[in-house]
Amino acid sequence: MLGLLKSEICKSQRVYGFAEDRKSKKLWLGSWNGVSLYNQQTHRFEEFIGQDQLKDLNIRTLLYTDNSLFIATEKFGLVVLRDGDISFFDKSEGLLDN
């Protein structure tokens, strides 16, 4: 899999978190270069709506459930991606820390 990561969208050699969408057979990968989406059926990385807004985030871990991707970041709190809409939650939203 490392060869795929180097040759495709995922620019970082370190993946800090991943989450699987079992229904669509896609794998979400989080690194210090944002989030990438890998299609397990076509064996290719895909672009997704909102990807540009996530490219500068340092991702710590991911959780995919109920058509939503929950993204824990190093400095920007929690980010939720659902149907192309992105919501940011940080200290001002009640988190203890970012």
Mean of residue pLDDT? 85
- Tell me the fraction of residues in β-strands, as a range: 35-45%
Low-confidence parts lasting 5 or more residues at pLDDT below 50?
A: 1-9
Helix content: 10-25%
Order of helices and strands: HEEEEHEEEE
Largest sheet composition: 4 strands, antiparallel
The number of distinct helices, counting runs of at least 4 residues, comes to 2
Q: Biggest sheet: strands side by side, in what order?
A: 1-2-3-4
Shape: globular
CA distance, first residue to last residue: 31 Å
Descriptive report:
The protein has 98 residues and is mainly β. It has helices at residues 2-7, 51-54; strands at residues 17-21, 26-31, 34-39, 44-46, 59-65, 68-73, 78-82, 85-89. The chain has two helices and eight strands, in the order αββββαββββ. The termini are far apart. Mean pLDDT is 85; it is low at 1-9.
Report a brief summary of the structure.
By secondary structure, the protein is mainly beta.
Protein traits:
globular, single chain, 98 residues, 2 helices, disordered N terminus, 10% helix, 4-stranded antiparallel beta sheet, mainly beta
Secondary structure layout:
Layout: H1 2-7, E1 17-21, E2 26-31, E3 34-39, E4 44-46, H2 51-54, E5 59-65, E6 68-73, E7 78-82, E8 85-89
Antiparallel strand pairs: 1-2, 2-3, 3-4, 5-6, 6-7, 7-8
